[in-house]
Amino acid sequence: MRATVRDVAQRAGVSPKTVSNVVNGTFPVSPKTRLRVEAALAELDYVPNLSARGLRNGRTGVIALALPDLSTAYSAEMAHHFVEAAAQRNLTIQIEETRGGAEREHQLLSRARSHLVDGLVLNPVLLETSAVQPGVSLPPTVLIGEVNQPIADHVWIDNVAATSQMVELLLRHGHRRIAALGVMETESARLRRTGYRQALDAAGLPRLPELEIPTIDWDPSGGANAMRGFLAEHPAPDAVVCFTDSLALGALNVLWGAGFTVPGDVSVTGYDDVAESQFTVPALTTVSFDKRLLAETALRLVADRIADTDRPNETVTLSHSIVERASTANR
User: Fold this and answer.
1) Is 307 helix (H, G, I), strand (E, B) or coil?
2) CA–CA dist 205, 167 (Å, integer)
3) What is the pLDDT of residues 257-267, one digit of tens each?
4) 3-state secondary structure 41-52
5) Are 322 and 169 in contact (CB under 8 A)?
6) Is 112:105 a contact under the CB 8 Å cutoff?
7) Which pLDDT tens digit goes with each residue over 208-233?
8) pLDDT-based confidence at residue 55 (cuts at 50, 70, 90)
9) In this structure, are residues 152 and 138 in contact, taking their beta carbons and an 8 Å threshold?
10) What are residue 65's DSSP bridge partners?
11) What's the Cα-to-Cα distance from 79 to each of 62, 69, 73, 316, rounded to whole Å?
């Protein structure tokens, strides 16, 4: 007979409500308790009763997509492309927000193990804090973005190469005092700073700590606050390499307010090529890649993993390009 929630609760030594919280991810559960419940779920081969949803073959037709911050333009565009790509496969996307923490990732992994979703697409912020770690029982899961965990399939853009190429573009324009805006403890920031430094090293230019501008948030207000703080203590740089388009929006606003022209006084670049970057004043030079292809590739890998859980893990590096617009010019 099918195991029930009460059976799982008895095996784990917890209440049925706690089992429900682990399965549904509705309320936080301590890591120790969650592991006990997940072990009981596996031992009893617990599967929720999905008949009321009209599902067949134990599949929900739902893939969970978890992004760190749904308020950003980048996340909105990625969610759009995942929904569109999923529809082509007769799938539904469940959109979640992690805020860069592991707790929601743990909850989603539990939901997938309990067959409430067929698979997961996760965008962790840091390898160290991600719930996807060696030794964790992993349902069909694909990582997108910069965190590379070899136990899972992975789709990403080469951030080091992309940022290095952006700095090289600015160097060709005659810029030498180039700032990097967006430094923080995330894998994306680490890789983009590495690319920034590599290009400076290759050009024989010194790394100046004051030109690596830290930010608290990767959004327009974070970019504005960081740029404002920098200008209060330092002369304007020749150019600013912003680690996202959202950061660049804030930087453009502050530079304009401080009386600097872009690109006459300072060139500004972004990363991600969100739709708004074409309509900033001036239009933003940025790193571009095919977001629809990223979504399609991630969903293909999830489907392949569902069909064959033992297949070798696959990492796909998508191509990128530098789109030069009016925010950059010769010095």
Assistant:
1) helix
2) 12
3) 999 999 999 99
4) HHHCCCCCCCHH
5) yes
6) no
7) 999 999 999 999 999 999 999 999 99
8) very low
9) yes
10) 95, 121
11) 14, 11, 10, 19
Give CA–CA dist 276/283, Å, rounded.
9
Under 8 Å between Cβ of 192 and 182: yes
Nearest Cα to 211, choosing from 184, 230, 229? 230
Q: How far apart are CA 21 and CA 107, in angstroms?
A: 9
Residues 306-324, buried b or exposed e (16+ Cβ, 10 A)? eeeeeeeeeebeeebebbb
| Cα–Cα nearest to 160, from 130, 135, 192, 199 | 192
What six digits make up the tokens of 53?
Answer: 């949803």
Are 119 and 142 in contact by the 8 Å Cβ rule? The answer is yes
The residue type of 274 is V
- Cα separation, 64 vs 56, in Å, equals 19
In whole angstroms, give the CA distance from residue 96 to residue 88: 21
- Residue 45's CB is within 10 A of a number of other CB atoms, namely 8
Handedness of CA 139, 140, 145, 148 (dihedral sign): positive
Q: How far apart are CA 63 and CA 249, in angstroms?
A: 32
* 291-307 vs 73-88: helix crossing angle, rounded to 10: 50
Q: Is the pTM of this model over 0.85?
A: no
Cβ count within 10 A of residue 245:
26
User: Hunting for tokens 């860069």 — which residue is that?
Assistant: 100
**Helices within the chain (DSSP H only):** 5-12, 16-24, 31-43, 73-88, 102-113, 159-172, 187-202, 220-233, 245-257, 291-307
